[in-house]
Specification:
The longest helix is centred in the middle third of the chain and has 20 residues, at about 155-175. Helix 1 runs parallel beside helix 2 and helix 7 runs parallel beside helix 8 (about 280-285). With about 375 residues, the protein is α/β, with parallel strands linked by helices. It has twelve helices and 14 strands. The protein is about 30% helix and about 15% strand. Strands 3-4-5-10-11-12-13-14 form an eight-stranded parallel beta barrel, surrounded by four helices. A two-stranded antiparallel sheet has the order 1-2.
Length: about 375
């Protein structure tokens, strides 16, 4: 698959225009997608390797960090970072400080795993929690390897309020850690998405059943985070028709327009991870008049990584105000410079995505190698 076109056939200039997201002016319209890379310490703290990884990509107009869990109960897998303890806050400072030192902006993506977890990952050794007692038809990564997700415990009304509160607490933690804002992860099969999905959410209370009830948890979690930071430093990521981690979407063409229609109008942005349904994306664009970040995949779930061509098309047709790229940023830390030059591009190494260590994480070569001193050259 070709991830780019030559400069002779592709006008990329719009990617380098400034854009305002919330109350921040970004240097360009290229957003680095949240990419789980499984390099965090065992206690969920960030480390120097992660700081180097993000600093290499600081030329993005905005970096959205890998998902950080908002509570011990919200952890989805080993080697993923958290953002709810003093140790987490202190560790993320090395990341945000170096990104800012290089002129970048970075939001923390906040997540609660819900049922996409395991007893071995829970602080009390119990079952993970979810809207309903329905297991995800998926596996997650534990110290014992990939294991099936167990049947979860349904959240009580009080526990739902505690989970919502954990997003506010994590948003405050993100601010203390130096992040420029946060993104609420409402896709990819995690807890917020589980409340949205009728197959995962079979509650009979005010958080289940109708579309209006199923979007309630997302809206209240978003309100809690916005109350902690201010709405202009808060975005939300949605992923209509995404079947990740056992999701079974069936009414997304109705649910997501209602969710977007109900969002606070002064949020920093709406981030849409597209899965081949451009008409739905167009409808969401019409409903949402604030900044829209699009992770374009118009070819459907089997189309592979988003391309520079798709990104340019999304801007040129007015579908998005900024575009989010994942695989390209993963393999090309200096992606803006490479796009401006028309390539060449590094090819990603899938075997290194989650294996840990520096290989395939901080060793993708830049387009222009830094000048060496005579001693280094020798």
């Amino acid at each position: 698959m070709t991830l780019f076109q030559s400069p002779e056939t592709l006008n990329t200039s719009a990617l380098f225009d400034e854009v305002t997201i919330g109350d921040l002016k970004l240097a360009n319209r290229l957003v680095m997608a949240p990419l789980t890379r499984s390099r965090a310490n065992a206690d969920g703290t960030a480390n120097a390797l992660m700081a180097e990884h993000y600093s290499q990509r600081a030329a993005a107009g905005l970096i959205v960090s890998e998902s950080a869990y908002v509570s011990a109960q919200g952890k989805s897998a080993i080697k993923t970072p958290g953002l709810h303890t003093d140790a987490h806050i202190a560790s993320w400072r090395q990341v945000t400080d170096v990104v800012h030192a290089r002129g970048g902006r970075i939001f923390a993506q906040l997540v609660h795993a819900g049922r996409v977890s395991h007893h071995d990952l829970q602080p009390d050794g119990g079952a993970p929690v979810a809207p309903s007692r329905i297991a995800a038809r998926a596996k997650t990564f534990t110290a014992s390897g990939m294991v099936p997700c167990p049947v979860p415990r349904p959240l009580t009304g009080r526990q739902i309020q505690a989970a919502i509160g954990s997003f506010a607490h994590a948003a405050q933690a993100a601010a203390h850690a130096g992040f420029d804002g946060i993104e609420l992860h409402a896709g990819n099969g995690y807890l917020v998405n589980q409340f949205l999905d009728s197959a995962a959410n079979q509650r009979s209370d005010r958080y289940g059943g109708s579309v209006a009830n199923r979007i309630r948890f997302a809206l209240e979690a978003l309100e809690a985070a916005a109350g902690a930071l201010g709405p202009q430093r808060v975005g939300i990521r949605i992923a209509p028709w995404n079947a990740a981690f056992g999701m079974e979407p069936d009414d997304d063409d109705v649910l997501y327009p209602e969710l977007v229609r109900s969002l606070p109008s002064d949020l920093a942005y709406l981030h849409v991870r597209e899965v081949g349904d451009r008409p739905l994306t167009q409808r969401l664009r019409e409903l949402w008049r604030g900044p829209l970040i699009l992770n374009p995949h118009p070819g459907g779930p089997e189309a592979g990584a988003a391309t520079v061509e798709q990104a340019c098309q999304a801007l040129s047709c007015g579908m998005a105000d900024a575009v989010c790229l994942g695989t390209l940023f993963l393999a090309n830390p200096d992606l803006p410079a490479r796009i401006a030059a028309g390539g060449p591009y590094n090819e990603p190494d899938p075997t290194s995505f989650y294996q840990g260590g520096a290989a395939g994480y901080i060793d993708y070569p830049p387009l222009v190698q830094p000048d060496l001193t005579p001693a280094q050259a020798a």
